[in-house]
Amino acid sequence: MKKILLGFLGIIFMVNLHAGYAQDLHIVEEALVGNKENVELLLEQGADINTTFDNGETALMLAAYNGHIEIVKLLLAHNAEVNAQRFDLGVTALHAAVQGNNLEIVKLLVKHNALINVVSSTGITPLMLAAENGWLDISCFLIAQKALLNACNDEGYTALMLAANRGHLEIVKLLIESGAVLDITTNQGSSAFDLADQVSSRMANYIALCLEKQHGIPEMPEAKVNPRIIPQAQPIYNLLKAVKISDIKLFKTVFSPRVRLRLAAQDWQNALENYKKTLPGNWGDFMLNDFSFVFNGKDDQGKVTINYKGKAQGALLVFKQGAKWKLDEN
Fold it and tell me: Of the candidates 138, 246, 271, 297, which lies 20 to 30 Å from 171 by C-alpha distance?
């Protein structure tokens, strides 16, 4: 009889245990869908506020990601663990709020001592997430809260690199102006400039110009303007002239920052010699007066069609840097 009673009590205990766990899971589910009343009721019934799904996801993480700010406030008021991390990804509620682009929740979590520079299982910080997604307001806030600008994830990417890789120019500007280092490279050897150069010439030119300033490279002197040549074609005209008369100083004034960066790495004189071999091959001993130009594009970027003796020879990309136009390809 005693054994039967103990067995019966054990069954009741296990049933209550599973019932309690099921109740605890309900709080995660209700936080996910944003049902504040049910979350309050479950808390009153003693549900474990830090219960997780199998992957370690908590009610606070799900409410933060989905923008349920009232539930976030409620959970924090009941001492939910703000820095709990998912078992699989290592992300926290702050990561979730950033990924969901929920600035007010991000601020609320930080106010409740969320770790600004917490890293996921792959080394991702909240700032990296904000930069990669292009969330400017969240990036500004995290930087103001002393987020690490130059932290690297497991692949060697910084927040700047992630923003550059996604083409988020305003984030790139923010990070550089805030002090992000430009010379860091990924595990594969790519810099922020390299990544930007594959995505956006505008962004690559901005980063290249910043690199020149950072390294103390003096600005190139501007060449004289030929009044009969349209402004957008001035760099192409000057390129032809530099090749014609072997003028290295004039040659250096022609290019945009991103092209200058590439040409400087292979030596300016060699670059000029390569042009001197290539261009005469197209037009022989050309005369500058034999060329005319037509521009097609926007206020600060476009293509210039080169006409030689009245025949179109192709088009080159140009970019406006300040008040001057520059050749944006080589």
Answer: 297
